[in-house]
Amino acid sequence: MSDIVDGNNLSIRITNTGNIISKLEEKYLFNYFFRGINSKAKMGFGLGLVLTKKILKVNHATISYRSSKNNLNSFEVKFPLS
């Protein structure tokens, strides 16, 4: 986890190693009831990221996902400072 103040934003980045989310699944991460192929054996409803994004939006913040070539998953949350 890291935090960065960049201009008028505070960015918090959470990064982990593990299975990279496929480009196909990446498009649906923030959709209602979407669950990745690796989560089928786990309990859940596919609402966590959707609700997170909505709560952040109400607070004028954003969340995004990206993967890197060295098998890192990274979610970044940006909060406006003003």
TrEMBL record:
InterPro entries for this protein: HATPase_C_sf, HATPase_dom, His_kinase_dom
Q: Which residues form the Histidine kinase domain?
A: 1-82
On the tree of life, the source organism's domain of life is Bacteria
**Pfam families (alphabetical):** HATPase_c (PF02518)
Record's SUPFAM superfamilies?
Answer: ATPase domain of HSP90 chaperone/DNA topoisomerase II/histidine kinase
Protein name as it appears in the record: Histidine kinase domain-containing protein
What is the organism of origin for this protein?
Bizionia myxarmorum
